Amino acid sequence: MKTISQRELRNDSGQVMREVQRGASFRVTSRGVPVARLTPLLEDSLAELTLREGTGVMEFPPGLLRTETTGEALAELRGER
After folding, report:
1. What's the pLDDT at 54?
2. 13 φ, ψ to 5°?
3. Where in the chain are the domains?
4. b/e code 35-74 from CB counts within 10 Å (16+ = b)
């Protein structure tokens, strides 16, 4: 994963977005402090489930509401249902 500054993102946003479309990921910094991650979207939102680092808690991407439990979601990802 490449690291770029907020200024680089602003000045070269077209190029950065083309690279993201081709699969590249970027860590964006502000004054040297990481503030965001820019990654390609997955077609299946369920595949975007992430494990909060160090917590063991699963979370869904912002804007995605699911009523099933984490166990049910993982079973679907594994093809168990």
Report:
1. 58
2. -60, -40
3. 2-38, 45-78
4. eeebeeeeeeeeeebeeeeeeeeeeeeeeeeeeeeeeeee
Interval 16-67: pLDDT, tens: 999 998 889 999 999 999 999 998 876 665 555 665 555 556 666 666 666 6
Contact of 16 with 36, CB cutoff 8 Å? no
Strands, E assignment, 6-81: 26-30, 33-38, 50-51, 58-59
d(CA 49, CA 62): 10
Structure token digits, residue 33: 């402090």
Q: Which CATH number fits the domain 2-38, given the four candidates 1.10.287, 3.10.450, 3.40.50, 3.40.1620?
A: 3.40.1620
